[in-house]
Amino acid sequence: MPEIPPTNPINPAAAWPSGLVIRARTSADAEGIAAVQHLPGFRAGTLRLPYPKAGDVRKFIETEAPGSVSLVALMDNTIVGDIGLNRFTGRRAHAASIGMGVHDDYQRRGIGRALLGEIVAIADGWLNIARLELTVFIDNQAAIRLYESFGFRVEGTLRDYAYRAGGYVDAHTMARLRAEQAEKSA
């Protein structure tokens, strides 16, 4: 992986962990992302299957929809997290969905907060996204607290949403409305 120059947060008020680099995801990141996706803790919070293939990850990266934003987080030139924003079209062009995850060994270090902060700053300040949506398993309380700290609210619970490790698990659908955040800060 090539040497990555230091980056600065889009939001100047954001505080990143020392040594963290966040940058655009590239197809050269496929092997590192596949390695992170294979970790049991990372995988448990997603819809991913075990044993991801770097080629499938590369193909996904290379065929992302126009208008999507995909970032990776690195520490010591190792991919330790990623996040993606996919904007909807047509009558839902004001909205986007996000998905993210952090390497098992780097959780609770502020990396997820930094990634989410970058995507929210881009959505608010650069893309004029009024509504951000996500889905999170109900047993992922750390992620739910993180999302709530950015203004996401549970809008509903999806029962038996996914099959994981031999059983069905429920998920919350959450959303953040930019107008509500502006009202709170006024």
Description:
This protein is α+β, with helices and mostly antiparallel strands and 186 residues long. The protein has a domain at 21-134: 3-Layer(aba) Sandwich (Aminopeptidase). It is 29% helix and 32% strand. It has helices spanning 30-37, 40-44, 54-62, 111-125, 141-149, 178-185; strands at 21-24, 69-75, 78-87, 95-102, 131-137, 153-164, 167-177. The protein has a seven-stranded mixed beta sheet, with helices on both faces. Strand 4 (95-102), helix 4 and strand 5 (131-137) form a beta-alpha-beta unit. The protein is globular. The model has no long low-confidence stretch (mean pLDDT 90).
How many β strands by DSSP?
A: 7
Low-confidence stretches: none
Indicate the CATH architecture of the domain at 21-134: 3-Layer(aba) Sandwich
Please state how the strands of the largest beta sheet are arranged side by side.
Answer: 1-2-3-4-5-7-6
Secondary structural class: alpha+beta
Q: What is the CATH topology descriptor of the domain at 21-134?
A: Aminopeptidase
Helix residue percentage: 25-40%
Number of helices: 6
CATH class of the domain at 21-134, named Alpha Beta
Mean of pLDDT = 90
Oligomer: single chain
Q: Distance N terminus to C terminus? A: 44 Å
Please give the radius of gyration in angstroms.
16 Å
List SSEs in N-to-C order.
EHHHEEEHEHEEH
Rough shape? globular
